[in-house]
Amino acid sequence: TDEGFVDANTCVDWDRFFKVLGTEIDQHLANYELFKSQGIDYDPDLIPDGVKYWPGRGNVYFAEKYGFDLPDNVQGLGAFFEVEANDVYEPEKGEFPIIEIAGCDDYVYPDEMYYWIYNDAGGIHTESEGQEIRMEIQVQAFAYATNDEINNMTFQRYKLINRAVAAIDSTFFAMWVDPDLGCYTDDYIGCDSSRSFAYIYNEDVQDGQSGCDCPQNVPTYSTEIPALGIDYFRGPRDEFFEELGMSSFMYYNNPVISGLPGTTDPQTAVEFYRYLTGHWRDGTPLTKGGSGYDVASTDYTRYAFTGEPDDVNAWSMCSEGLQFGDRRTLQATGPFRLDPGAVNELIIGAVWVPELEYPCPDISSLLAADDLAQSLFDNCFELLDGPDAPDVDWVELDRELIAILTNDITTVANNTNEEYQEVDIFAPEDVPDEDKTYVFEGYRIFQLRGPGVGSGVVDNPDLARIVETVDIKNGVRQIFNWKGIPNPNTDPFAPDLIWQPTVKTENAQDEGIRHSFRIKEDQFAPTDRRLINHRKYYYMVIAYAHNEYERFLQIGDNITGQRTPYLSGRRNIQLYTVMPRPITDVKLNAAYGDLARITRLDGE
To answer: If 235 and its partner were Cys, which of 65, 239, 244, 507 is the partner (CB 3.0–4.6 Å)?
Structure first.
C-alpha cells in the first residue's frame, strides 16, 4: 500500500518472479506488426506469456494467470514501452517490457529479464530484531547473450520506495554479497574504491579447503578458477537529488569458518548499522593493514583491501596472507536523509572472467570486463546487435549434410536481404555516422563439440571449429580486432596496456556470399574425418559485419582508430543438431546450387 503496510496474503501473492525473454518480445513485435499491416486487431491469444502477463500497471491480462489484481500506485510496477501515454500496460497495442533506468530515454529490452518486489514490512525481522521502516523494493535483473565478456555478466536495478510517513535522517543503502566463489571457505576479497568496484578471488591455486575438496560436498572450480566483480554503477540520491557513490566497502566473516568475534555476522540492528557505516560489529572502525580489525590502530579507512592481489606492496588479503575464510561484503552509501515517498535507484553489475593465474592473480582482465560493463551502463544498456543470424534448413544424406541459409523478410530481423546496417555507438562522436556504420560482411559456420556449447566460446578450438566462412566480394579478407593486455614493461613512462590484434576471420575467401553448403567432414575427428551415419553433429551459424572508420593506431597511451572492425551478430543464433543417414526415397538434384531442391521420387 501507499502507507507501507503489507499483510500476509499480499506477501504470498507477490512471492514470485516474473520472467520475460527477448525472443518473446521479438515475436510479440513481429506478431503485432503483422496484424497492423493487415488492418486488424492483434489477437491477445498470440501474445507470448512473458509479455502478456508482465506486471505492468493496469495490465488487464495479469489476473487471469496469477489470480489477483495489480495495485494502482503512482510509482508504477514493471516498466514498459508505451504506445499510448496513459500509464496503462496494453500489450495488445504493441507495448512491451523494457529496462527502466533513470535518465535513459531509449526503450531497451535485454535477452532475459526477471522482475520481483519485496519489502521489510511483511514479516518479523528475526535476523536483526530491528523495526520495520516500510521500504518497498522493486527489482529488475537482466542479462544478454553475446559473443564477448558481456555474455558472462548480469545486471540488477533496484527501485527503492520509502512508503513510511516519517523521514529517516541518517540513511545508508548497501549491496550485500555472499559470493561463495566455488568453495566458500577460501574466498579472498578486495575493492577498487575509484570504480566503486568489489571483487572476489581465490586464496590459492586450488579451489577447496583441502586440495580441491570443499565441506558439504560443495562443487569447486578445482584449478581452473575464475574471479568475480560487483560494480556499484549508481547509488541513491540524497535529498538534494545529488547522486551518491560508494561511501565504504566493508566485509565480515562466517564465524564457523574464521574470524574474531568482533568481525563476524551481525546479530542486532545496531550491529547491522555499524557494518553499513564502515565499522565492525563491536563498533571498532575499519583500519588499514592486516585484516582491517585493530582496536589499537588509529589509521582508519572506509575501504577494505584496496590493493590489487598481485601487488606485494599494496594492502590486499593476498599480501597479508590471511587465513581461510567465508566472507560477506557490503558496498554502502550514506548517510543521507530519506523523506516519505522518496524514490531511489541502485544499479549494480556482476562481471565474471574465467581461469586467472593463481595465487595472487593479476586482475587486469576482470577490470577490463568491468570497463565494458561500465560502458554498457553509460550507454543505457543499449548493445550493438550485429547482423541477425540466418535460419538454417538441413538435408541429412548418406555421410553428408546440406546446410541452406535463408533470411526471411520479417519486421524484426535486421539482416533481411543481407542489408544490415548499424551505427557504432562506441565510436567517437566526431566521426560521421556514414563512416562508423557497420554493414553485413558474411557468414561463419561452426561445428560444435557438443550440445552445451554456446556462441560465447566459438573462438575456442577445443569447443568450436570453423567449417566455412563466406563473405561479400569487396576486398576485405582477414579481419582482426584489437585487445589490450597488461604491459610487462614496468617503466613508469610505458603505457599501461599493449594492444594486440586478434584474428576473427582468417579464412574468408572474398568470393561472394553463398547460401548452400555441402558438409562431409567431422572437424573434431582425429584421423578419418568422414561423417558417420546416425551420429549426432552440432552446428551454429553466425552472421558478422565490418567497419573500419580509421585504421587502429597506438602511440604510447594515445589510442586512435577502430578497435573492433569485426562485429559478430548476437541474435537468432541457434544450435542445430543433425544426423547423416542413408536416404532411400529421396534423391538430390545433380546440379545442386543456391536454388537447388530436394525432389521426391514420387514426384511431390
So the answer is: 244
Other CB atoms within 10 Å distance of the CB of residue 103: 8
User: Which stretches of 166-256 are DSSP H helices?
Assistant: none
Are 365 and 239 a contacting pair, CB within 8 Å?
no
Residues 368/484, Cβ–Cβ less than 8 Å: yes
Name the average pLDDT for the chain.
Answer: 91
What angle is formed at CA 119 by the lines to CA 116 and CA 125, rounded to 5 degrees? 135
Strand partners, 498: 485
- What is the β-pairing status of strands 516-519 and 558-560? unpaired
Q: How far apart are the C-alpha atoms of 209 and 185, rounded to whole Å? A: 6
Question: 353: closest CA among 377, 330, 372?
Answer: 372
Residue 454's Cα: distance from chain center in Å? Answer: 14
Give dist(CA 342, CA 240) in Å, integer. Answer: 12
What whole-number distance in Å separates Cα of residue 48 and Cα of residue 51? 6
DSSP string, 206-253: SBSSBTTB-GGG----BT---EEEEEEEE--B-TT-PBP---EEEEEE
pLDDT tier for residue 72 given thresholds of 50, 70 and 90: confident
Cell of residue 50, nine digits: 512473458
Lowest mean pLDDT among 52-66, 189-203, 581-595: 581-595
Residue 426 has pLDDT above 90, yes or no: no
* DSSP notation for 321-384: TPPPB-EEEEEEEEEEEE-TT-EEEEEEEEEEE----SSS---HHHHHHHHHHHHHHHTTTPPP
